[in-house]
Specification:
Layout: H1 11-42, H2 52-60, H3 64-68, E1 70-77, H4 80-86, H5 89-106, E2 112-115, E3 120-126, H6 133-137, E4 141-146, E5 149-161, H7 170-186, E6 191-193, H8 196-217, E7 221-230, E8 236-246, E9 252-253, H9 255-265, H10 268-288, E10 295-298, H11 301-305, H12 307-319, H13 321-324, E11 327-332, H14 333-338, H15 340-353, E12 356-362, E13 379-382, H16 384-392, H17 394-409, E14 413-416, H18 422-430, E15 435-436, H19 447-457
Parallel strand pairs: 5-6, 8-10, 10-11, 11-12, 12-13, 13-14, 14-15
Antiparallel strand pairs: 1-3, 1-5, 2-3, 4-5, 7-8, 7-15, 8-9
Helix pairs in contact: 2-7, 8-9, 16-17, 16-18
Bound molecules: ligand C2E and magnesium ion (MG) (2 copies).
Length: about 475
Amino acid sequence: MVVESEKPLTQYHINLLQVFSENVNNGFNNIVLCNRLSELAYFDPQLNIPNRAWLVRFLDNLPTSERCQSVIVALNIKDFAELVLSVDSDFLSSFLQQFHRKLQQRFKAQRVIARVTDSCFIILLNSEDLPTPQAMAKLNHFKVMTNNVQLHAEASVALMNLCELTTVSGRELLHMMDSTLLQSQREHLALIQYNPQFRSSILERHQLMQGLNNAIDQGRLLLMFQPKVRLDDGRVMGLEALARWREADGHYIPPGKFVPVAEMSGLINKLDLHVMHLTVTAIKRLLDAGMPLPVSFNVTSSDLDDLFFMDSLDQLCRESPQITQWLEIEITESQTMQDYQHVRPLLQNLIDKGISVSIDDFGTGYSSLQHITELSATELKIDKTFVDAMERDKSGEAIVDMVIKLGKRFNYSVIAEGIETPAQVQQLSALGCEFGQGFWFAKPMEFDDLLNYLKDKTKGTDGSAI
Ligand code: C2E
Ligand code: MG
Ligand code: MG
């Protein structure tokens, strides 16, 4: 510190100046620390470019007039998680740097390039600088030279015009972009343009999810029961429990509407756990009524990975062993086959506990044949589409015939679902199918109606009990 003074400095002045210098020094240190914090909070550590938080803040502060002239392009590198696992961190850093450089080359007039998730980059542009449709069409493929290795990176691309969204917060905009990219992945689209309908369907899904959560908590998630019968004499040999969501006004929302949303949101484990408890209650009531029957309920593969769900099932088997033999789970063939090596021991574990396992919608998953000799299942349930096709053409009949023969050969019980006509019953019986389920026999019904139905079934034609 240089001090200009007419008088010599006293010790008192020198002390004061020292305190003053310390403060200035602390001030500078704080600026460095703040800069570092802001760097950590707002910049991607690998590429030193703006991150998601930076972009959110930037979009929030963008004046409406500028937003109106802006578009954002999002590029999501496909199979990025696999890439991360298969290369070392230096290679990955180098790949990301090259990829970023390619983006700079392809979007020369960009205002910002931000990395908003590990695999996703967002480029903010003025509308007039948007690449031509021909150039946009090339954005799905990148050749990236990394450490003398040429990698072909595939990306899904989404486009959002900010002019239609001037009042939406930056956070919400990026969330909408995430959903748009998800949509493009689901539909295998090369390029997707954000459509306001996406937002309303997201909101609708969100409301549905909250409503479903409340319905479970408030006991408005109920079960209907559909009989499974022997085809030769129509005797009931089991039941399937099917979830129904009763709205406050009494009308039912079918599972086709809420199960996919529950699966997407992770609420499915809570839903299926609730269904499991209701199924157990139904089994107990049937035992008490002197009409013991196996009751199946539907699960998804994520239930098998959910520790809470599996612990609850374990506990139930320990506490009520008399229930286990009547309990059956149904899991679709496509879910079973998605990660067969992982799912198989989990299903086998259930079978070892005495719980039956039915492979639902069998025939639609396409990939079971190679595993048919060793499926961890007790039952194959032929999908309704084949039961329908059976009447129409020979190939439909051939598939049903094949499943029945294979099922018998490898000791699975085989049931056909969605039977609606006596002709289907006849055809299935002729092919050797022993069991069936469908509207021809009975529609799903509430428990009290089921008890009456079962009582009627056990009466002779003259009304006497048989
Ligand atoms: P799913 O397990 O294959 O159940 C059969 C579906 O076909 C049921 O529809 C049933 O009502 C319907 N069905 C039965 N017989 C006939 C027939 O003869 N004709 C026609 N047109 N349909 C028939 P639902 O109850 O709407 O269930 C649809 C799907 O929702 C189920 O297919 C199952 O995959 C899923 N689901 C139902 N309840 C649950 C649940 O508690 N948890 C899970 N994870 N999924 C469930
Ligand atoms: Mg089912
Ligand atoms: Mg089915």
